[in-house]
Amino acid sequence: MSLLRSLRVFLVARTGSYPAGSLLRQSPQPRHTFYAGPRLSASASSKELLMKLRRKTGYSFVNCKKALETCGGDLKQEAQKEGWSKAAKLQGRKTKEGLIGLLQEGNTTVLVEVNCETDFVSRNLKFQLLVQQVALGTMMHCQTLKDQPSAYSKGFLNSSELSGLPAGPDREGSLKDQLALAIGKLGENMILKRAAWVKVPSGFYVGSYVHGAMQSPSLHKLVLGKYGALVICETSEQKTNLEDVGRRLGQHVVGMAPLSVGSLDDEPGGEAETKMLSQPYLLDPSITLGQYVQPQGVSVVDFVRFECGEGEEAAETE
User: Fold this and answer.
1) Residues 171-187: pLDDT tens digits?
2) pLDDT tens digit string along 154-165?
């Protein structure tokens, strides 16, 4: 029996009536109805609509049909309900994996972290698209903030603040709604962990680095990885090598995990040093990072470092 014919048989069983133009002959026998809910129109229950919903959302044929029946064709509403229901069941399960996302547009740079349970899911495009939505939502939030004419600005968003942001262009609702949809599709507990943003005026530059970076044409300008760093530099003139210098500084922050910037006047430290400029330079330990920076014509003023799953092990130990 063809799929279209099966659908029509299903509708007959549910509604007790045949769709217009049905290939099935109507029987003169009295019909018994088995379903007391709202009837579906022939157009809403057509094979084309069902297949369109299935292709668009990735949900099973059964879930698409259920959405048409219970939500009047609003599959997003049904998917969101299922996502929140699944999220409630999965709440409390550890989310040690996930991705760091880096997005730069103009003078604004954002770094976000979204966690899931397994590395397998973190490699799924649906999860990566969720990270993209979080980065875009954070970027939109930053662009509404007033620029500082002569100084850089930096801010952080915790999980609750991040979840409440609008979902970004071409998306309805908030980021937590997008989270619910992703949980419903992928079946793992997920958390919008945190975000950081930096805006700089003329005379400043943001160097960036993502370890294990991966990009996809599907992901706009987003760069994904397990570690990420932003390094805010002040420079008196525009230099052609700023991007390379910024990347190297970001590599150092990811690899050496400093806790503060420090000063060029500080004494050189060893492996345990936590002041960035006094640390042995990651790519050449014979000099300090400060000694590498000085000839480059830039001054390091601040940085941000994200490590995926950071804090989870400590929380588990406690």
Assistant:
1) 778 999 899 889 888 88
2) 999 999 999 999
Q: What is the C-alpha to C-alpha distance for residues 191 and 165, in angstroms, rounded to an integer?
A: 14
Between CA 54 and CA 63 the distance in angstroms is 9
Enumerate the β-bridge partners of residue 110.
Answer: 103, 197
How many angstroms separate the CA atoms of 272 and 140, rounded? Answer: 39
Q: CA angle, corner 136, sides to 250 and 159, nearest 5?
A: 80
Confirm if 205 and 242 have CB atoms less than 8 A apart.
yes
Q: From residue 96, how far is each of 93, 115, 226 by CA, in Å?
A: 10, 7, 11
pTM: 0.74
The two tokens of residue 58 are: 């990735």
Q: Which residue has the tokens 């042995």?
A: 280
Which two tokens mark 230? 């932003």
Residue 179, amino acid: L
With b for 16 or more beta-carbon neighbours within 10 A and e for fewer, the 45-65 pattern comes to: bbeeebeebbeebebeeebbb
Q: Give the largest CA-CA distance in the chain.
A: 98
Instruction: Provide, for the chain, the percentages of residues in helix, strand and coil under a 3-state DSSP scheme, each rounded to the nearest 5.
Output: 40, 25, 35
The owner of tokens 């160097």 is 207
Q: Measure CA 39 to chain center.
A: 38
